[in-house]
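Good morning C.,

I know you're traveling, so I'll keep this short. The sequence:
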Amino acid sequence: MSPVSIRILYVAEIVGKAGVFTVKKLLASARRDLRADFVIGNADSATGGAGLGRQHAVYLRKLGIEAITTGECCYYKRDIVEHMPKAPYLLRPANYPYGNPGRGYKVFACPAAGASAKVAVVQLLGQAGFSRVHLANPYQAITDLARKLREETPVIILDFHAATTAEKQTMSFHASGLVSAVIGSHTKAQTADARIVRGGTAYITDAGRTGSLQSVGGLDPATRIAEYLTGISAWAKDGTEGLELQGCLVEVGDDGRAISIEALRIPCTEVLEDKKAEPEAPEPPQD
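The tokens, ready to paste straight into the viewer:
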């Protein structure tokens, strides 16, 4: 028997040690309080503010994120490139060339919502603003992928990692009726436009970030100020103040149409200490 609806918690881009720490402290209680059946988290900046290392990927999975998405930084860390084929919970953009390490979409079982419940998660990268990568057209990709995935489940969540609001808003209308939700990521600043667009698709331009709010995209403001004053590039350390878990909660009916979407901002009252910031290296979960 199909579930009446599935409640999906999306954790916005996890940035650095502060982001991982915030997930550790808040995810379990947030999932319980929001009655979430399934958790997706973007971790494109989890390791050092750019990319995702194997250790953090395994740790975030252990903390309860069932589907981990990335973005243009998906191959920044060498150990994650080797780990991707072994990690069915980990997604990179589906519009990378065929044969690249990893996968761009997956249908996940969702036993919390019922024995037969399934959630398909797709990751796509936008075309504007990413000078280092030139990928296939994401609009064409989602048309083909949605048709394929609907053979297994009507509940399809698209994490669209794109740099411009115009590209993400365009995707919301293009994919309306094809997917259950288009959740924007990459800019790490939560927008105030969570809504259901025509066709029954939930949408938010950017779900925000998880980590330091008193920061520049999760990173130390002082370094960024110096960079703008001098024109000399510098690698900023993680921000540590004003920790929040941001994201959104999407409820989807068993027909794949969105019922509701709510933007989330959950403050973390605990203070990040350096000695507690780095996780231990647990064994990968058995999938």
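Safe travels,
E.
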